[in-house]
Amino acid sequence: MQEKNTPPIAKRIPHKLEKHGHVRNDEYYWLNDRENPEVIDYLNKENDYYKKETANTVDFQKDLFEEMKSRIKEDDQSVPYLYNGYYYITRHEKGKDYPIYSRKKGSLEAKEEILFDCNELAKGQSYFQLGGLSISEDNKWAAFSVDLVSRRQYTLQFKNLETNEILPTKIINTSGGATWAADNKTVFYSRNDEVTLRTDKIFKHKLVSDSADDQLVFFEKDETFHCNIYKSKSQKYLIIESGSTLTSEYQTLLANNPDGKFKVFQKRTRGLEYSISHYGDSFYILTNKDKATNFKLMKTNENNTSKENWVDLIPHDKDVLLEKIDIFKDYLVVSERSNGLSKIKIMPWKGEAYFLPFEIETYTAYTTSNVDFNTEILRYGYQSMATPASVIDFNMRTKTKTILKEQEVQGGKFDKNNYEEKRIWATATDGTKVPISIVYRKGIKKDGNNPLLLNAYGSYGYSSEPYFSTSNLSLLDRGFILGIAHVRGGEDLGRQWYDDGKLLKKKNTFTDFIDCTKFLIDEKYTSSQHMYAEGGSAGGLLMGAIANMSPESYNGIIAQVPFVDVVTTMLDDTIPLTTGEYDEWGNPNEKKYYDYMLSYSPYDNVKAQDYPNLYVSTGLHDSQVQYWEPAKWVAKLRLLKTNDKKLFLDTNMDAGHGGASGRFEALKELAKEFTFLLDLEGIKR
């Protein structure tokens, strides 16, 4: 008889946390110290326990990894795009984990010029990420950045593209991006606060000079704001963006005058959000000015940029969310969203507007690398839950399209006609209709016996787009239904959809997901014995909440880097990114927000009850959700849960929020999640 593995039990040390006269005893607070050997020892013991408990699935994990890898075209490359006389290409070589960045001058038949081979740069590193890659206007210099820890603290460097020499200059703790002025020797970049990692400073660097002499151009004093710098598509302006969840401010400077002074475009006004695009002698402004909840498009002369000079171009529509614009010499392209669907509208400066046609309801369409002004070609991407991703060039004059590339599914077994996808609507507790996108293999019976994995995010106004994944075929072809719940807190149905799922309405996100779950069960797509949920980061908060609120609805939950200790984190303004989150979750230094957060924070609401099977993952160096949040949550669950269902904490000791960095290493992590689900379903191969 096999000896039963004993899960690690974290020691309990009383630690009082008091706010607004309320006292919490956080017995696992001590885990908040990655320098403490006992903490590392505990995380390693949890990892050992996970490995022992899943030893029976190791071979299956390897098989799944190879299966998922076999569908990926290893010697793949991006669709080239032309910029400033060069075609730029990103490609992968067979058997290698990292991309190779290259370019060709003037023609795709020209000799390839390797800019960066990330496989070489990543040698000897357990984690590697190339940050922003920026080329000077004379095409002679590249600014690039590298993160070797997965904490989004990039080291900025410079390469001479004529000699292939990398300069000895290394600028540490940057946010990764860099922007060239028109003189080809001045570079602007942003840096992070060393403790909070908030991007709060813009510096100016002169090429071939000591970085110690770099000049501070702008310091963002407001702790709820972050800043960055970029160049307008027209190349005329350098633009500093400062923003919080609810407020925007931009500053501009002519790119040919890098030593000049930046000018405020429109000073920050709480609640006023805007973004700017330059064309000709005007700026185009996407904004919520005058209570335009779903945003509208306005225009102003480049010499008179304050808001009293803005003129409506596309008025506000309560049913249509304006998300993005792309400006061309003869066309304006508007990306918008209505009834939960993304749409692309072509508006000739002279002529009738029209939409790109899309036939199904589970697709995603988005404009991509449109760097050229003087063209009638719009490049966009398209995919659905059963249709591989495509890159398409659309001639806006002739209304004809050319599919440049469709994602290849290797192995010869995939046929999208074998799958069915649809959008269905659940009714939330308050009567709101919530869309769900689902895909499954044709021929399933709605008898309640199908395993179903439902995913959601539901925060920050991020819309959960339907997408195609070659990896998901490993679940679909084993009988799983896959779904995305477009819950409130995202912007799937417009800005109000977001507003109704944040701050003091955050619980709508959780109840929407539970109501979607119950709808799928009632409609016999699945049953609670075969129902699974998955979410990461803020979506991991959602997973923690539903585990507390409706544990009986799920057989298993996957929580990736979950934000589960909401109150403690939001009260600690030294933790990276916290202060910028006040407009999303509320500031718990105010009692009404403290009380509301406390009512749903997963860690604070763990109680003595049965819980579903849980697989929880995190990264030791995560800068967004600190590792101790899931670690504390799992420790408390071990103490209080009243059943013996699986509970795993799997910590990547080398990585951060995004997990492993190599494209195939990430598949190994996915194989762990899939075998967790498949093992619960009794599917062994």
Explain this structure:
The protein has 685 residues and is of the alpha+beta class. Among the domains are: 27-69 and 420-680, Alpha/Beta hydrolase fold, catalytic domain (Rossmann fold, 3-Layer(aba) Sandwich), CATH 3.40.50.1820; 129-242, Beta Barrel (Lipocalin). 18% of the residues lie in helices and 33% in strands. The chain is built from 12 helices and 39 strands. Strands 7, 8, 9, 10, 11, 12, 13, 14 and 15 form a 9-stranded antiparallel β-sheet that branches. The longest helix has 17 residues, at 37-53. The chain is globular. 42% of the residues are buried. The mean pLDDT is 93.
Can you describe this structure in just a few lines?
Strands 7, 8, 9, 10, 11, 12, 13, 14 and 15 form a nine-stranded antiparallel sheet that branches. The mean pLDDT is 93. The longest helix has 17 residues, at 37-53.
